[in-house]
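Q: Protein A?
A:
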Amino acid sequence: MTATLRTENDIAIVTMDDGKANAISLTMLDAVNACLDEAAGADVLVLTGRPDRFSAGFDLKFMAGAQPEDVRRLVSGGGKLAMRLFSWKQPVVIASTGHAIAMGAFLLLGGDTRISARGAYKVGANETVNGMTLPAFGTELPRARLNPMYLTEALVQARLYTPDEAVPVGWLDRVVEPGELMDAAMDEATRLKAISNGAYYRNKLLVRRPAIDAIMPTLEQSTV
């Protein structure tokens, strides 16, 4: 399995683990979305990864050899997953276990509270380095969540940050020692559980509506 679900005190914990870099592949997308289908009734959602790897981004090996339609399907699927998190009805806590690069970083932006393990990890969007043009969700999600002062550095110049450096940029909210990560995430999930109500969801949508409206119509458009 590339993603698993367990529930603890009405908190759904989805763990991505492909045994490697947690690349976002079609298989990973299917697995995570299946877990989210099951998690829809929980009071809070926690998304995490495997040790040292939250997600290294899209499966570039697949993209290099795939047909354009399959690449489009993968990129669109990644955007849909990020937006599913971004507009999730209940609070979303992300416990980033390590590297969060490219699509992995965009998944961070779908969370409400993003907590990372401290370490020599890379966080950010390196599409420019790879000669890739960002899809709409790759610009509008950062525009909604990142510190505007860092948008050029973070997106155009493709700077990758350590977790501590990523906090003022806006990729993350907080950094803790690796052994404290899941406890911190569960403490935050428990705190948010008390306000996991209709007002939370309505206010989230009100705040995020401009980004949602800008991104959703683009997800079926060609990105290659």
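Q: Protein B?
A:
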Amino acid sequence: MRVLVVEDDRSVAETIRRMLVAEAWVVDVVNDGMTGLERASTERFDVVVLDIMMPGLNGYEVVRRLRSAGNWTPVLMLTAKDGEYDQADAFDFGADDYLTKPFSFVVFIARLRALVRRGAPERPSTLVAGTLSLNPAAHIAKRGDVELILTPREFAMLEYLMRRKGEVVSKSEILDSVWDINYRGDENVVEVYVSYLRRRIDAPFNCKAIETVRGVGYRLAENGGG
């Protein structure tokens, strides 16, 4: 899942980024409201984490402009202010949830997952490709009735491939969507994780879900490979 963090306090933004990356989220960070508005308006994110008190364009105005433009990406607002009127203002401007700093990371992640689950009705709650199924919100993947034991990165890669099933995706596309935006390592790490996934989701079941398209990238078969 991809999240945009709009936070002018760079140390707070980096802490949030590290916590989310550890959960295998793909995180983009910007440090001002105007850039956040532009990114949220022109790119696809599953959820936006938005600080309220920022110079220039504050969080209230960012979410107001997004909603006025018909952009309904779920927004979780963060603030150091805990007054009930501040919370009411956030909801009135179009926020979906509100969290006061400092906050529990466990609660933060749970609320983000809830927002993704509620805020994207156009997406199925469970992704399906043949006998493969994956529920992003519950973080459960199965082959038939057998639950698959995947690392966070493996789960994120499988989710991305299932969202793009039937399409050929390049290594660079997978890196951009599954790895942290700051990753500067060898793109062949994608091959390594494809190999890991095949051992988890294909080999034990005599299936072949992930196809290699030579010179282009990978494709997850629409029928899940069996």
